C-alpha cells in the first residue's frame, strides 16, 4: 500500500495510464484505490479518459460515491461500482472497471472465462456473470444507480473478477499492483482462450493448478517486476525517464513447488527418458 495520500494519488494516476497503454482502457474505464489511511474512503480520478489522468485529477470519495471535499469536477457516472464493492468487500483495496476488447466477447456470448495459462490463474477458479437485465430490465448498460452497484457487488461475491453482460468486466485486488497484474493478465488470458478455441478444444488449468499458479504469481516480486516493465513502457511512450525500480525483498519460493508427497528419487520406469530437474530451470 502507498503510505501517503500524495503517493496514492501518483499510483492511481499511473495505474490508469498503464492500463490505457497496455490496451485495456480506451476513452472509458476507471481504477480506484481504498484510501491508505481511511478505509471508508477511496481514490478515483475525476471524469477523464484514463490515459490523461494525472495525480491532481484523483479525488477522494466516500463509500456512497460522494466527494469528501466539494469539487467543481464531474465524477464518473459509474462510481457506484467502486463504492458498492468497497462497501461489500473489506478485503478489496483496489478496483478496475473496463471494456477491454479481448474480454467483451465473453461478456456478449456469455461464455465462461477460464484460466488457460499460468498467468491467467490470477482470475481464480470462477468468474461470475452479472446481467443487468436480471434485476433491472432494459437499462443504458452503465452501472449508475447504487442498487445496480450493490447487485453487481453481490454477483462478484468473494471472487476476483465479474463479467458484465454486453458491457465489460470489473476486477478487484488486495493491492493496486495485484489489481493491475490481474487486469492485464486476465485480458491476455481472454485473448489466448479465444485463440485456443479457434484451434480446437480449450483445456483449462485444473482447480489445483489455478490455486498454485495464482499463489506463485501473486507474490510481491513477480507483481513488482511486471509493474516496473509496464511503468517503463509508459515512460517511453510519455517521453520521460522511468522511475527506478523498487527493491523487493527476497522471499522463500514456498508456493512455487510444494514438497512432494513422494521422495524425489522415485524409481524410474523402464525406458523412461531422464527429465531435467525442474529446480534447475531459471525461476521467473
Ligand atoms: Zn462501464
Using brief descriptors, characterize the structure shown.
7 strands; disordered C terminus; binds zinc ion; globular; L-fuculose-1-phosphate Aldolase; seven-stranded mixed β-sheet; alpha+beta; 284 residues; 8 helices; single chain
Global shape: globular
Bound molecules: zinc ion
CATH topology: L-fuculose-1-phosphate Aldolase
* CATH-defined architecture: 3-Layer(aba) Sandwich
Give the class-level CATH name.
Answer: Alpha Beta
- How far from one another are the termini? 24 Å
CATH superfamily grouping: Class II aldolase/adducin N-terminal domain
Q: Estimate the mean pLDDT confidence.
A: 89
The structure class reads: alpha+beta
Query: Share of helix among residues?
Result: 25-40%
Number of domains as seen in the coordinates: 1
Question: Unreliable runs, pLDDT <50, ≥5 residues?
Answer: 254-284
What fraction strand? 5-15%
Strands of the biggest beta sheet: in what spatial order? 3-2-1-4-7-6-5
Count of alpha and pi helical runs = 8
What does this structure look like?
A hairpin with a 3-residue loop joins strand 6 and strand 7 (168-173). The protein has a 7-stranded mixed sheet with strand order 3-2-1-4-7-6-5. It has one domain (5-238): 3-Layer(aba) Sandwich (L-fuculose-1-phosphate Aldolase), CATH 3.40.225. It has helices at 5-21, 79-88, 104-109, 132-136, 146-156, 176-199, 207-217, 220-238; strands spanning 30-34, 41-45, 58-62, 94-98, 129-130, 161-164, 168-173. It has 8 helices and 7 strands. Helix 1 runs parallel beside helix 6 (176-199), helix 2 packs across helix 5 (146-156) and helix 6 (176-199) crosses helix 8. The radius of gyration is 20 Å and the shape is globular. It has 284 residues and is α+β, with helices and mostly antiparallel strands. The protein binds zinc ion. Zinc ion (ZN) binds at residues 78, 97, 99, 142, 167-168.
Amino acid at each position: 500500500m502507498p503510505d501517503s495520500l500524495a503517493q496514492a494519488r501518483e499510483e492511481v494516476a499511473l495505474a490508469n495510464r498503464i492500463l490505457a497503454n497496455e490496451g485495456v482502457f480506451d476513452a472509458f474505464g476507471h481504477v480506484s484505490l481504498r484510501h491508505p489511511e481511511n478505509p471508508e474512503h477511496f481514490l478515483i480520478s475525476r471524469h477523464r479518459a484514463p490515459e490523461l489522468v494525472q495525480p491532481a485529477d484523483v479525488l477522494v470519495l466516500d463509500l456512497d460515491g460522494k466527494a469528501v471535499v466539494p469539487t467543481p469536477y464531474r465524477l464518473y457516472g459509474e462510481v457506484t461500482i467502486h463504492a458498492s464493492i468497497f462497501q461489500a468487500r473489506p478485503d478489496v483495496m483496489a478496483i478496475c472497471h473496463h471494456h477491454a476488447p479481448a474480454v467483451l466477447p465473453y461478456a456478449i456470448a456469455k461464455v465462461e472465462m477460464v484460466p488457460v495459462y499460468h498467468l491467467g490463474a490470477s482470475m481464480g477458479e470462477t468468474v461470475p456473470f452479472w446481467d443487468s437485465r436480471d434485476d433491472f430490465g432494459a437499462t443504458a448498460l452503465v452501472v449508475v444507480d447504487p442498487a445496480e452497484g450493490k447487485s453487481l457487488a453481490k454477483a462478484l461475491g468473494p471472487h476476483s473478477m465479474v463479467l458484465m453482460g454486453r458491457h465489460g468486466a470489473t476486477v478487484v485486488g488486495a493491492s493496486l499492483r495485484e489489481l493491475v497484474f490481474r487486469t492485464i493478465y486476465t485480458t491476455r488470458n481472454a485473448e489466448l482462450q479465444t485463440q485456443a478455441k479457434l484451434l480446437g478444444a480449450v483445456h483449462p488449468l485444473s482447480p489445483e493448478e489455478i490455486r498454485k499458479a495464482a499463489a506463485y504469481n501473486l507474490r510481491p516480486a513477480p507483481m513488482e517486476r511486471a509493474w516496473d516493465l509496464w511503468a517503463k513502457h509508459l515512460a517511453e511512450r510519455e517521453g520521460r525517464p522511468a522511475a527506478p525500480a523498487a527493491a523487493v525483498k527476497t522471499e522463500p519460493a514456498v508456493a512455487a513447488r510444494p514438497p512432494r508427497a513422494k521422495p524425489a528419487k522415485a524409481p524410474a520406469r523402464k525406458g523412461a527418458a531422464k527429465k531435467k530437474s525442474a529446480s534447475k530451470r531459471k525461476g521467473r
